[in-house]
UniProtKB/TrEMBL annotation, chain B:
CDD domains hit by this protein: PsrB
Keywords, ordered alphabetically: 4Fe-4S, Iron, Iron-sulfur, Metal-binding
Organism: Oceanithermus desulfurans NBRC 100063
Location of the 4Fe-4S ferredoxin-type domain: 77-96, 118-153, 154-183
Protein name, entry field: 4Fe-4S ferredoxin
Amino acid sequence: AQGEGAYPLVEPENIIYGLCLQCHTECTLKIKLQDGVVSKIDGNPFSPGNMQPQLDYATSPQQAAKVDGSICPKGQAGVQTQYDPYRIRKVLKRAGPRGSGKWKAISFDQAIDEIVNGGKLFADIGDDRVYPGFKDVFKLKDARLAKEMAADVAAIRAGRMTVQEFKQKHSAHLDLLIDPDHPDLGPKNNQFVFMAGRIEHGRKEYAKRFTFGGLGSINWYAHTTICEQAHHIAYKYATAQWVEKLGKYSWKKGKDHMKPDFEGAEFVIFWGTGFAEANFGPPPMTPQVTQAATDGKLKYAVIDPRLSKSAAHGWWIPVKPGGDLALALGMIRWIIENRRYDAAFLRNANKAAANAGGEKSWSNATWLVNPETGRFIRASELGLGGEGEFVVLASGRPVAVDPYDSEQPVTGDLEVDTEVGGLPAKSAFQVLKEEVFKHDLDFYAREAGLEKKTIVDLAREFTSHGKRAAIDFYRGPIKFTYGYYAAQAIIHLNLLIGNIDHKGGLVTGGGKYNAMGGVFDLKKMHTGALTPFGVKSNREASGPYETSTLFKRDGYPAKRPWFPFTDDVYQEIIPSAASGYPYPIKILWLHKGTPVLATPAGHLQIDMLKDPDKVPLYIADDIVIGETSMYADYVFPDLTYLERWAFEGFSPAIKVKNWKLRQPAAAPVPEIVEVDGEAMPISMESMMLAIAKKLRAPGYGKDGFATSWDFNRPEDYYLKMVANVAMQDPPVPAAPDAEVELLRKARRHLPKAVFDEGKWRKAVGGGVWRQVVTVLNRGGRFEAWDKAYAPDGEFVAHTWSKLMNLYAEPIGTGVHSVTAKRLSGVPRFERMTGFDGTVIEFPSEYDLKLFTYKEIYGGQSRTSSNYAAQQAIQPENFVHISAKDAERLGLRDGDVVQVRSPDFEGTFEVAPGRSERVEGKVRVSQGIRPGSVAISWHYGHWAYGSSDVEIDGTTVAGDPTRGRGLVPNPAMAVDPYLKDVCLTDPIAGDSAYGGTYVKLVKVAGAVAEGAKQNARAAAMEEAARAVFRNS
Amino acid sequence: MANHEDRRDFLEKVASAVFAGMVLGGAKVEAQAPAGGVEPTPPPPFKISSEAQEDVLLRMQRDLQRALTKPIEERRWGMVIDTRKCVGCHACTVGCVMENKLPPGVVYRPVIDMEVGEYPNVDRKFLPRPCMQCDKPPCVPVCPVGATWKRKDGIVEIDYDACIGCRYCITACPYSARTFDFGENWTDAAAAGKDGPLALETGRIYEELPNFEYGETWERGEGIIPQSPVGNARKCTFCIHRVEKGVLPMCVTTCIGRATFFGDFNDPESLVSELIARNNAVRLKEELGTEPKVYYLV
């Protein structure tokens, strides 16, 4: 030992503030360096995500150096993500067939040249096929023509132009289209598909700039439907606003997330989620909940088939997996029947009424719906008002409603079933009531797998705290084909007690500072930007099927479903490409994603990806070769979250305004290359710069942003976002000299290819540089914690103060593109259903209902490399079953079982002669509902450093510890209509992780573990139990 | 650092005995430390959002700063863990590993996760288990070379330079708080080699960084006994290297439930003194008479 008293980790010049990405909570970090190596990661004390309240923003970074905030175990292990022996440093090109595991390292320049120009790229391994390059999709390059064609395609979709007229008008340019007979499919540019697994703000905008305005492709995707899209979509429609643009009215989707105010609430329901695992997320949420609960102010229930860590100290409600919709509808029924709802809140039909009633937000509960069309009756139909106004019955008389009128309060009747002006009319509330009353409480209790009394107790408790109760939910209740309706029903429970914006109610959070506008209007600063147009390759967000030229050709049923209400329908991207519907693609770029591993039944995509007829050029970028990038033609190294830029805002769990900054903290592990004379590490950013420059795509290089604002380096883009946030009114203080010096010193380990002060400064201009430094030195911008509540104490400070929708008109007027049946504007009871309308049944031998969950020490697909966290705490995951089922099935703790379903026989082939088995050890527990089986995520890898690869003729051995445990996804049910993709929610496009019944087939008996170790562990546990017996 | 001097003094006294093959059973528990300890540190000028409401971490950091202004023998470091607020997340377990660069198999602060009851009346209990820093530590008298002792501030210290790796202390600890450093590394099973297309070398550089336990810089592989702290018994230090710099232990700062508290039991104004005065404070295996300085709130 040497160097007495040294502890460099508290020195401010060894600290850089950043942002985690072990999960999408993306907590703010304090990254500590030791001899230029990231050695320790803690929470950022300037941030309300890690300290509550956080340090005053005016605290100097020198003072803050000694204060650490909290961070979860995944965050703590981030050093091992950064320094992972299996990280890719150079571009890898396959040296055998796709998936062979044979690679050769090539130069970045060669790789960019090959993927841009295409050709016989694999002639050296005996493959004479001509592969397309980016030049083969970058066809429509004229910004004016693109804009004009886009407008004309919109006219075709609106019925204002015929295809024939379009073809005549654009006869000189029809070769630019995918199919001139179907111009609405868009230009050939759309045959480039960018598919992102994990991508965050900052990077999203950077990649969209490349895909949309740069390359003119409409096909930019994120992964949300394997996450929790139904939750987002239900919120977006519940908060959709009725907006006017150029005299036309339409619904503009609203916020995707709201959360209970945990600090102010008396009762919170965590529905299929929790505060201490997954969700958004443990470090911001847990201290709020544990403090309030221990103080006796907060009581909470956790609805989950498994006794989660969040449920441990709460009121556990072990619902049947997928019984959530029935439970929510049962609660709604009881609340309506017993008039436990806030009628005064619900009757407020516009802003003026809400304000007069002491509320901030209001709802459309009283607006009249025509049940035959699903459409709201417009005031204009009755001669009562304009196009943009609706109708309520006020004391029996129809009255026009302008939702945003702040002068004339309109309160409507809640229960209306009548005729107005010859039209059948029901209030939205009535429509909900009738739908929910189709089944009685016994039915709902049976479907939820709960006692009727439990539903009543829960509903009574929820409605016993005035506005100081709220429900949080995320993934658990919605990963079913009826996920959207389940999400909508849970939001409705909140609406029924009128808790929106209230202290202790459902809140929108503090929101984030705007990074896209202000000093730099980044949405517009794109010289010569192309206008992308056309139907997206998975038919999401592409308007109703019925207005497309493909509908004219095919009619119902659509060959594959359309998703007009949602986006990021991840599981459909590769199967759509493989089927060639609506059109074949040429280039797939998979960014940091692993659909084969992460998507239900994603293993079916292996054969699609291996086939160059279906996916002609396939490139990927990531930090390690994963289960899906292993089939790529080229894998590019990417930077970790500790080496690069990006930004996020907190979830609504944080009630003050904020903006979280990711910036380079670690020296880059990937190779440093030159892009057009600029040195930088290989990453998604440098790839896009290099490709765009080689193609001469608009918006890059000299004057790329605007005259004298060049786009040559990643920070040319990202630092402008920092500047926007720094200068947002009121601007942050300018950094004093000592802070500018600290910025330099703390980056002394970074190569000039990453940190070049002159270049950073130039990216924003000298005038704002010192304000930018202030934000960089604190890892973002954060409003003071005590700004959370309004001075009146009744409401939060950052309110929604807008319309909330009990009835979602766009969905209520929508039609299922395969069955041609109408959807519902209010939640309705449904069972698991395929796209053709078949209710999914399982033979009785499949008698355990499968569901998944996340451990707090595991993330999505990148935490098996966290040796000191996931691997040390739980080296493998388990097949959790109840003691009752174990006895029935004759299974013991530790027995090895194979998971099978009607669609899956327990194994699948990942490469010729190489099979993966979905097998794991049984863990018997009292803390899981009988009849169900739980398998956690984050295990069961067969790539990602867990198996051998061959690079440049040398075998690199895999680390088998990274491949332990099992991934349950292959056992998840396949859609009976499409047959190549999992069951899917037709509204939200969400993939069904839940709802599959499986059987467990024993393949080996339990192996006795070290007796001595067990004895010590048992003695310790006995002592621990004694502590609790004393309580 | 004074503590370092303690150890050197102590080691010199026992060294001849060790090399003569003698066994020093029941060695002195208190180190002979010069009074004083570290330089008094003034409380930090934290500006927080609201004086009325602050994160408990800041309150404890002020408590700690206050304690550091006293001579070392007047400090009595202790920990309180509120089991009602512990969510079993293991942030403390992993935070401790990363802070102290612990190798596989060396765990200072596991969290015991227990199921209690039968479905549907079932509960889960979590119990983090650091070193209890016992006032009467059973691990100390069994050490044949006096490589472990109780300091004046109550911390039970191990001198890796003196430890011969006999593991008597590991057996003696009734809390299983000591584990053995077998010299494993986290990336032992991963491919090794030079950096090329993959980061085989850079991918493990963090494992070679020294740690700072007891305020010293420990390069694994150095030491009087070869390879220390490899081949030594190891245990939780209450992050005394952080504490003496005015920073709370890692398990305290990273606790997302704010369930772990740290401070000076000798200071009646400290949060930990307030907490253990309550009637829901209990200790593990109280009956053994080890007098742990870790309390659990139940």
